[in-house]
């Protein structure tokens, strides 16, 4: 069977065998792992490094997400790290010399109740104080940005207005992974697929390597960037993470002519929709309630998100569903990520992005690389350390992360 598989195309990136030792190892070949390796090499000159991926590159959440990019989070700490990512997104296509179809078409977050309106206006003000572009739109202005939304006051949950971030948008997720992988490879980083980390090798309380399905690999520094599998790996390293893994689903329709010019999210009716470059309507909603590691979810979740989509966009009533899929997202108690040191020396973690980490791919990689290379958190990830769950300094972003992003 293996002999019948095509050769790995060398023009993307090499397919090396693992060496016995590296200066640093990044566990997880998703967007965050690749971005971490890229910035370790680019910003810190560390090139004797490997990205270890148990499956295939971007086969986790990276190429399963719905690609929404925005930075309009409520709290200063979140606005800073997501806005840094947005600024990097604006530069990356040129820097990586790869057109990953970054399209700044704006995002509307709809408000349907008086409390929704109050929270949304508060968020707009908070965003502006953080120099994040944000506007409050009345229903008639919402209809100008996206004419296919039903803004009738007769609706059960009428659109009372929306926040709008014009610089937000979408990008093609698998292209982003390939762009980072190609750039990493060019700097000498080994990207090793089908190499599952099965355990950690320690000298006292210091990590000195990992055991994998392709043998033991020594390394002075290890970054754990495994999204939905973070807590499983942390347990193997001997500590616990406050993370719950849930399935999160998404779906696409058949291809249609361009009808949907922006990204629309509704926490209350509970769906979000954009239209991909190819023409598919891309939709998602919240997580499946149970914990799990299967990359699939329950049918009733899809049924509800379709009902919500039709309520907001009556013209979708005759659209056909083409395919659905699921990923495994790592959710923390305050809906914010964990990036920093772990109780094991030289082992660092980046996880807990839950339903919204794609948008942060570049800044997450940037600060994780800084933290690994210097042993100190970057100012952007200092508030997101594991210790906040014992100090109580939580960054509760449930409102801004609401419909799952
Ligand atoms: C359906 C869905 C929709 C989403 N929509 C959005 C969105 O619109 N906007 C947004 O910002 N975010 C979104 N997200 C969230 C986003 O995809 C994630 O937060 C982000 O991709 C996580 O970082 P990553 O890319 O590195 O994760 P992943 O791509 O999951 O990378 C982790 C990798 O670690 C590997 N791994 C696990 N265990 C091991 C091991 N033992 N050894 C080696 N490798 C291992 C996995 O195979 C995987 O490839 C969505 C997620 C899903 C599932």
Question: Describe it for me?
Answer:
The protein has 405 residues and is of the alpha/beta class. 27% of the residues lie in helices and 26% in strands. It is built from 9 helices and 18 strands. The protein has helices spanning 31-44, 76-95, 114-129, 139-145, 173-186, 230-237, 299-312, 361-374, 388-391, and strands spanning 21-27, 49-52, 68-69, 107-111, 135-137, 161-165, 169-170, 190-192, 197-203, 206-212, 215-224, 244-255, 263-266, 271-275, 280-287, 321-331, 338-341, 347-351. Strands 1, 2, 8, 9, 10, 11, 17 and 18 form an 8-stranded mixed sheet that branches. A hairpin with a 2-residue loop joins strand 9 (197-203) and strand 10. Helix 1 packs parallel to helix 5, helix 1 crosses helix 8 (361-374) and helix 2 packs across helix 8. The chain is globular. It starts with 20 loop residues before the first strand and ends in a 14-residue tail after the last helix. The relative contact order is 0.19. The mean pLDDT is 95. Residues 27-33, 52-55, 58-62, 64-68, 196-197, 225-229, 233, 248-250, 284, 327, 329, 353, 355-359, 405 line the site of flavin-adenine dinucleotide (FAD).
